[in-house]
Write a structure and sequence with these properties.
alpha/beta; 45% helix; 8-stranded mixed beta sheet; D-Maltodextrin-Binding Protein, domain 2; globular; 3 domains; Arc Repressor Mutant, subunit A; 11 helices
């Protein structure tokens, strides 16, 4: 086959994603396209080569034998391209390390400590980005990611454990009497809307709040608590600096919620000396984490 007869790479990528995910909708999300655009690309590809590529499978789709063969070959080819690009980038000047971290954890735990790493390794450039949950390392150009491990992990990811997630109520000293007397507003985050109910159920001896108010993010919840608007049910990682400084109290301590944080990177990615240094530093910082204040 002449190279001019090879179908469009965009069409081949669409087929590969649909075949791998068994869903046009999931492929559209991964490729940042509409459902219709993915369907048209696969239909166009099938018309050009003269065979059906997909067939119905319950509520989803699956590749035909010919579609499976082509999708597998496309995936292998894309893997070769990704490997070549990684080799080229590695051989070039050292690229900055892009570290992705959940927003509230980045603002209240990572950023206050990151200057220590930069002082120890002034030649290593770290770019910080924020995000939560699953991610596409290649598409988002992320080197390492710190995540709360409460979602399905890709088997192709390597995960280095950091610290367990512990939560507890925190408040400025001026609200301690109100908390002890049950005359307080409970502040929570909409990212974990049932957290207060679960914590109160596990701590029946703690006085109940007069109301529960949810804010959009944990960092907003913490600012509200620091401003005296109520008692925040906070992850320890987000409150640890303010508790250590005496700006907040944690009279009930922090208890594990069954999840933990981890440092993630693709197994296939080359771990440079710079990346290894950052990984070891982050692990050391996590190991300094107090069990409870």
């Amino acid at each position: 086959m002449k190279r001019s007869e090879i179908p469009s790479l965009d069409d081949l990528r669409a087929l590969e994603a649909v075949a791998r995910l068994r869903s046009v909708r999931a492929a559209a999300t991964e490729l940042a396209l509409t459902h219709g655009a993915v369907s048209r690309r696969v239909s166009k590809l099938g018309f050009e080569i003269g065979i059906p590529l997909l067939e119905a499978d319950g509520r989803g789709v699956r590749p035909t034998p010919g579609g499976e063969t082509l999708a597998l070959a496309t995936g292998q080819a894309l893997g070769l391209i990704a490997g070549a690009l990684a080799a080229i980038r590695t051989s070039a000047a050292p690229a900055p390390i892009v570290l992705s971290c959940e927003r509230s954890l980045a603002m209240r735990w990572l950023i206050p400590r990151l200057s220590e790493f930069q002082d120890a390794y002034p030649d290593i450039e770290v770019h910080l980005s924020t995000g939560g949950g699953a991610l596409d390392f290649a598409r988002e150009r992320v080197t390492l990611a710190i995540r709360r491990l409460d979602f399905a992990l890709d088997p192709d990811w390597a995960v280095t454990p950091l610290m367990p997630e512990r939560v507890g109520p925190v408040m400025p000293p001026s609200l301690r009497r109100a908390f002890d007397g049950g005359d307080y507003a409970a502040l929570g985050s909409r990212t974990r809307p049932q957290a207060w109910q679960a914590w109160l159920k596990a701590h029946p001896d703690v006085p109940r709040p007069r109301s529960i108010r949810l804010l959009d993010h944990h960092f907003l919840m913490m600012e509200a608590a620091l401003g005296g608007l109520g008692v925040a049910l906070s992850p320890q990682a987000i409150a640890v600096n303010d508790v250590a400084a005496g700006r907040l109290e944690a009279p009930a301590g922090f208890t594990p919620d069954g999840t933990s944080y981890g440092l993630i990177h693709p197994r296939s990615a080359m771990v440079t000396q710079q990346v290894a240094a950052l990984r070891e530093w982050l692990t050391a910082q996590a190991n300094l984490f107090p069990a409870s204040p």
